[in-house]
Amino acid sequence: MIYNQYGKTGLKVSRFGLGCMRFPKDEKEAIEMVRFAIDHGVNYLDTAYLYNDSEIITGKALKEGYRDKAYLATKCPLGREFISKYEDLEKCLDEELMRLGTDHIDVYLLHGLDFDSWQKAQKLDALTFLDKMIAKGKILHKAFSAHAPLVLFKEIVDATDFEMAQIQLNILDVHQQAGVEGLEYAAKKGMAIVVMEPLRGGFLLNNVPAEVQAVIDAYPEKRSLAEWCFRWLYNMPEVSVILSGTSNLEQLQDNLRIFEQANSEVMPEEEWNLIAKIREAFESKKSIQCGACRYCMPCPRGVDIPEIFRLYNNYQLVKPYGVDVYAYQKTILSAGTGADQCVSCGLCMKHCPQGLKIPDLLQQVHQEFMELFNARARARGRDVK
Ligand SMILES: NC(=O)c1ccc[n+]([C@@H]2O[C@H](COP(=O)([O-])OP(=O)(O)OC[C@H]3O[C@@H](n4cnc5c(N)ncnc54)[C@H](OP(=O)(O)O)[C@@H]3O)[C@@H](O)[C@H]2O)c1
Prior knowledge:
Number of domains: 2
Radius of gyration: 21 Å
Bound molecules: NADP nicotinamide-adenine-dinucleotide phosphate
CATH class of the largest domain: Alpha Beta
Shape: globular
Oligomer: single chain
Low-confidence stretches: none
């Protein structure tokens, strides 16, 4: 296992961190998996209050001496209704400490910050809360995770002295959310960067298009798509930890093997070209042929047309994965740049080199995303407007 600096904290962390969001159903198996990872050099675990029983299972796995062998990151579910006042923050943290069977959390994150929860963080004075918890020794380092767009990501990074940012990044999401630009921005400030969803939750590997497989097969160096995805990430020196939530022991063993040699800056130019070809092959499968030239912009109603089509294409590639649907709701609609603002004036169509019927497509995307979002909200028992 290769170890890396964790920003300015002085921690030395394994480049592969175990994501505890996708534990196997069988608790015994999950505990064995955590211990197997630690026994083989993983010293970073990422869980959250919101990952079903994950904190409880992780807590059990960390008994019998394992707690001292790994850094433990968990998260404050700030966006949820049951956190409505300052006191709720510490109450929740105390519950997490109890679930995890520990007296301190190494890294405590404000979970999944978006426009709404970031506002809530300020309203509830969550940043002061983090500092107070550090002073009390309940947490050692403060951090946040976000699927937020770059502009919000930078605002959060600049707001306080967070020690780590956890971002979604993979070969397809170079310019999505924080993206590589956000990664470099935060790293320049000395923050550790932890990557989540390096395989887009596994969906990058499910139903790999024949075009993508052909590119991989034609390359002389034989590596699986999973390995290429991880390699592209560990090649970046700014990335401290790459989290992956393995579903079984075979995947865990595979990832441990991959991360044995996970040194930064090892990719020659041909490998960069290969990753670009893999990306192109994925993107050739997109369903709206938007080339992101932005000739359609600016829209007089402020609709972010290229971004909406990009989210939709991403979503189509990795169905039924929901992050793009969520991003549409939480970032595009919240910012007032959604397809619901379109009045079909048709100005955009005059400039589109692909001849796309943009207003119709916007309507289709909006309808589909909202149906999915509302179905999910209903499944979680929430009211749908
Ligand atoms: N803070 C947040 O907002 C947030 C959001 C998402 C995730 N996270 C954290 O980030 C962690 C990592 O994200 P992730 O779990 O989505 O990571 P990921 O690596 O993108 O996806 C994990 C999935 O990829 C597949 N996989 C992993 N290794 C494999 C291998 N060697 N070969 C084949 N398939 C493999 C498995 O899917 P199959 O089951 O389909 O085989 C596995 O469940 C999470 O576990 C969680 O701790 C945080």
